[in-house]
């Protein structure tokens, strides 16, 4: 049986994507796969909330058929129109009939028409609007730019159930559906990675949206997002985690990322890490060519400090560091301090290039870049260790 009852007469009818390893094209690594969650409300007016990625349409239809006759669906709530949630919509409407009501935000209506054409039977809703399905009432909360302009949440008052689409989700595909049935470390790690790589630029909006929901004084005892695990044991755990990540307060932790050509920069990186550890600050070390960019950005999210190093090539950084540094610019992490280091031959340039990225990314440079020529001497390594201690002390200052 593929469908699963998560609340009385409310069913998960989505799809599991065990094998996907990249999302948003190559932009996001998904080591543990993902799910496309959608939810069926079996009531007087049978309602589906969201759909699935188009290649998984048949899986969704099979799950629906276990609970109802698909043609009995009367309305479809589309919280978000990104294709991984709306891809099955055209075929579903074709099966159910063009009269099926499509409930969405104003921007959602525009996005559906731009993706799939006109001719749909729309009902546009805004924050506070409520519709009845019989025994249940659905209240809508617009969540524009979390993370598309069309995004909204659906709240089922009678079951204290929040369906927030991409918010509070994670790319995680396992056989179980609930937070209390999976490894907590894997779950929160994937949730943090999702936030870091997708939602960080919208942190101020997230704080405001959570405050708005709290001010509505609604009871929430389950949060069922559209990717990954459903939060039922302690749904406020993920809400509070979002608030912490959005506030960007960070931990006394430094992430050191580097790339090396003939191991000189690597020797500096290890010496810098020794200095940080001796200062009592948590640190992690990553060579870029052996690391996943999205995993690194997850680590940066809750760190106060970032140190990046590179050997120089053509008066610049080694090229595989560029995508990581460019992500820092677009993700707009707040309250981070940073420093650069590296080695060079007859001419430098890498350290200065890293510092330019830091300046654009609003990462505060707390110490002039540390650089050496060719191979590090014993004195250079001692100075690199001292460099690490200086950055660690800056992190401790908060």
Structure description:
With 398 residues, this protein is α/β, with parallel strands linked by helices. It has two domains: 4-246, 4-Layer Sandwich (Metallo-beta-lactamase, Chain A), CATH 3.60.15; 254-397, 3-Layer(aba) Sandwich (Rossmann fold), CATH 3.40.50. Helix content is 35%, strand content 23%. It contains twelve helices and 22 strands. It has a seven-stranded mixed beta sheet with strand order 1-2-7-8-9-10-11. Strands 17, 18, 19, 20, 21 and 22 form a six-stranded parallel beta sheet that branches. α8 (264-278) crosses α12 and α9 (293-301) packs across α10 (322-331). The radius of gyration is 24 Å and the shape is elongated. The model has no long low-confidence stretch (mean pLDDT 96).
CATH third-level topology of the largest domain: Metallo-beta-lactamase, Chain A
- The main sheet orders its strands as 1-2-7-8-9-10-11
What is the CATH architecture assignment of the largest domain? Answer: 4-Layer Sandwich
Largest sheet: 7 strands, mixed
Average of the residue pLDDT scores: 96
Count of distinct strands = 22
* Beta-strand percentage range: 15-25%
């Amino acid at each position: 049986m593929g469908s699963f009852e998560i609340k009385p007469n409310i069913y998960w009818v989505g799809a599991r994507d065990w094998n996907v390893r990249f999302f948003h094209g190559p932009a996001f690594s998904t080591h543990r796969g993902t799910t496309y969650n959608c939810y069926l409300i079996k009531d007087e007016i049978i309602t589906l909330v969201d759909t699935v990625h188009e290649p998984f349409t048949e899986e969704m239809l099979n799950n629906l058929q276990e609970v109802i006759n698909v043609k009995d669906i009367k309305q479809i709530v589309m919280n978000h129109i990104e294709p991984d949630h709306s891809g099955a919509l055209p075929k579903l409407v074709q099966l159910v009939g063009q009269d099926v009501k499509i409930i969405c935000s104003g921007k959602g209506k525009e996005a559906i028409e731009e993706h799939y054409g006109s001719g749909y039977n729309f009902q546009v809703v805004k924050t506070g609007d409520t519709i009845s399905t019989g025994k249940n009432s659905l209240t809508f909360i617009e969540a524009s730019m979390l993370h598309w302009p069309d995004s909204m949440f659906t709240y089922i008052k009678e079951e204290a159930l929040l369906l927030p689409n991409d918010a509070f989700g994670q790319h995680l595909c396992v056989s179980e559906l609930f937070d209390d049935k999976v490894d907590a470390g894997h779950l929160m790690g994937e949730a943090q990675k999702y936030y870091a790589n997708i939602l960080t630029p919208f942190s101020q909006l997230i704080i405001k949206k959570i405050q708005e929901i709290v001010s509505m004084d609604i009871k929430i005892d389950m949060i069922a997002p559209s990717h990954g695990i459903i939060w039922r044991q302690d749904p406020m755990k993920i809400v509070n985690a979002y608030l912490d990540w959005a506030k960007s307060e960070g931990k006394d932790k430094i992430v050191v990322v580097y790339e090396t050509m003939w191991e000189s920069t690597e020797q500096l990186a290890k010496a810098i890490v020794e200095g940080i550890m001796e200062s009592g600050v948590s640190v992690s070390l990553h060579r870029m060519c052996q690391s996943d960019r999205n995993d690194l950005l997850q680590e940066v999210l809750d760190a106060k400090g970032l140190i990046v190093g590179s050997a120089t090539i053509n008066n610049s950084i080694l090229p595989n560091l560029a995508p990581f540094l460019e992500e820092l610019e677009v993700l707009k992490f707040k309250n981070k301090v940073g420093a650069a280091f590296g080695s060079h031959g007859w001419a430098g340039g890498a350290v200065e290039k890293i510092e330019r990225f830091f300046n654009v990314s609003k990462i505060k440079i707390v110490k002039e870049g540390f650089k050496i020529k060719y191979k590090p001497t014993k004195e250079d390594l001692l100075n690199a260790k001292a460099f690490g201690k200086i950055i660690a002390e800056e992190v401790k200052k908060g």
